[in-house]
Amino acid sequence: MSLPETLVQRLNGAAEAGPAWLAEQRRAGAARFEEVGFPTRRLEEWKYTDMSKLSAADFGVADSAEFDEALYDELKLDIDAWRLVFVDGIFSPRLSDLESLPEGVTMAPLSQALSDDQQAVREQLGRLTGIEFSAFSALNTALTGEGALLRIGRGRALDKPLYLLFVSRRGDTPVMSHPRILVDCEQESEATVIEHYVGQQGAANLTNALTEIRMAKASRLSHYKLQEASQSEYHVASIQIDQGRDSHFTSHNLNLGGAVVRNDLMTDLNDENATADFLGLFFGQERQHIDNHTKVNHNAPRTYSNENYKGILDGRARGVFNGRVYIKRDAQQVLGYQNNANLLLSDRAEIDTKPELEIYADDVQCSHGTTTGQLDENAIFALRARGIDEQMARGLLTLAFATEVMQRIRHTAVTDRVERTVAGKLPERFNLESLVEESR
Amino acid sequence: MLEIKDLHASVEGSEILKGITLTINPGEVHAIMGPNGAGKSTLSAVLAGRDGYEVTQGSITFEGRDLLEMEVEERAQAGMLMGFQYPVEIPGVKNIYLLKSALNAQRAARGEDEIPAPEFMKLVKEQLAFMKMDPSFLQRAVNEGFSGGEKKRNEILQMLVLQPKLALLDEIDSGLDIDAMKVVAEGVNSLRSADRAILMVTHYQRLLNHIAPDQVHVLINGRIARSGDRHLAEELEARGYEWVTEEESAA
């Protein structure tokens, strides 16, 4: 595979930056990427999502984090949290806030961690997601230099979320960024991490994020990914978790934006009583393409997973749900449940849904279900019987369908944002926007 | 206000209502009573506009309009509201959305502007207090996880906010304990006025102890077998429906 000269130079240039161990990983990542290139649909894992038109040569790299304050206020979540802000992949100290971060907790931009806490980065970077995982993981490894290092120390329970905001600007030339996020949850710690990707309207950038999360014994992590890229952006992200005994991971994977989006969410349940809850929502309109791949590996007996993904597609949008549950030989008494429900609001919208169960133990309970569908006619009748016209009744139920996966979310800044965004994006015939805006 | 004339209706080809005639004027409270299978729920369903019920003969007019030609939502917008026997749970749809969009639909049908947000909140909070319901209720999903009593209270709350001209109450007392019954009855009684009418459909006389009707009709085998004032209900309570049934067949 031949790559454009500019990219080769960039790969080689990045490979020389930073400490020697990192330079080595970068060179390997660059070599791997040069070998495989962006994935084509011939690859089973990329069957539904065509990335072959993507050319890294089309993207520059941002050189400043300058950003209009008013626009920033509009894009960020209004939430009481410790915050790191990145603009086109560049850390913005001015917009970040780490005031009174408790002792025993680390929250640092990766660039800073690479100079202050190099060992911690070295211990984690690339340990869960290697360069072989995909062309994007190889590219991220080759070109990353920014992101975050989060560590929640033993027994620490945080009362505020750790909020990572990645803003994507509209610029003269599109840029690409490769955030790497490392999260280390030590024994019996409890935290909430929010990764929020938001694009300025018209931004046409490529974001290629990679998150690696280690969860020690009895740790708890509530992870949010709120993706609101502009409708002309590429967004690729993988999140890999490694779970120890009695750990509990909850994922809220909320995808509302992006032109072409690919998410990979994977956890390894490595010891007894490790539990993973995967909750997802994706909403696509116009020509948006949103691909969600999830994978739960039950590597030990008595491990538990529960997955519920909901998709709403309008216009000519296309959604993909590919959920794999793997149960290792002799991993007995495992519970693994999966559900994917979708609503298509137009004849030209499309969903490809593919559950995959791979089970090598005999004493397990697993189920999966997919529905594409229908709203509850009894509920429509009940709303109409109060005078609400049929279109709006369908709109209310569509919004309800979307918000159902958020029932357990206690951060109203997140639920409000999603609810308002979905209400605003639903077809005008549903007439929901002002209703939701004014009922807060 | 409501005029039912010689109404015949069938479900899956079998005739359930066999000629009902009934007139309800503004200010009146009517109760339709009857044993199981008499056609009470079919009558409610036809009035509400449910699918699957075929009117084969007769007419219903509501304020001079042909009710059977009106869509479900048009009936409500015109001021006819049904309090259901089994209110539906609607997960994810907040009560505030239902109340507000329903009220605005009604206003739009009358050619009025949407209600301003502060005015709406004031109105809703007053009615919530009257029904002894917590304001947090507004952000909860419609009837989701509600007890039977809470669901019925919610039906009445919707009536209080939407102020129908004609309130139809289908077995509104079923599944209520004594305290909830009182709150529901107070809500219904507060709706009584000279320009409004109420039609209750019930199996039991005890509801009428709380909401006193002006007229009672006994529905037997798809027809109104007898009409009278509230004393008819007491007589039914004492003598049972068989008494009317026997007289009906004797006649």
UniProtKB/TrEMBL annotation, chain A:
SUF system FeS cluster assembly SufBD N-terminal domain location = 20-162
Q: Which PANTHER family match?
A: PROTEIN ABCI7, CHLOROPLASTIC
Give the matching InterPro entries. Answer: Fe-S_cluster_assembly_SufBD, SUF_FeS_clus_asmbl_SufBD_core, SUF_FeS_clus_asmbl_SufBD_sf, SUF_FeS_clus_asmbl_SufD, SufBD_N
Q: What is this protein called?
A: Fe-S cluster assembly protein SufD
Residue ranges occupied by any SUF system FeS cluster assembly SufBD core domain in the UniProt entry? 175-401
Q: Which family does it belong to?
A: Belongs to the iron-sulfur cluster assembly SufBD family.
What Pfam family does this protein match (any one)?
SufBD_N
Automatic annotation (TrEMBL), chain B:
Q: From what superkingdom does this record's organism come?
A: Bacteria
Keyword annotations for this protein, in alphabetical order, are: ATP-binding, Nucleotide-binding
Q: What is this protein called?
A: Fe-S cluster assembly ATPase SufC
Domain ABC transporter per the UniProt entry, residue ranges: 2-246
PANTHER family with a match to the protein in the record: ABC TRANSPORTER I FAMILY MEMBER 6, CHLOROPLASTIC
Q: What is the lineage of its organism?
A: Bacteria, Pseudomonadati, Pseudomonadota, Gammaproteobacteria, Oceanospirillales
Membrane-spanning ranges: none
The reply to whether Nucleotide-binding figures as a keyword in the UniProt entry is yes
The record's similarity note reads: Belongs to the ABC transporter superfamily. Ycf16 family.
Matching InterPro entries: AAA+_ATPase, ABC_transporter-like_ATP-bd, ABC_transporter-like_CS, FeS-cluster_ATPase_SufC, P-loop_NTPase
Does the keyword Nucleotide-binding belong to this entry? yes
Enumerate the Pfam families for this protein: ABC_tran (PF00005)
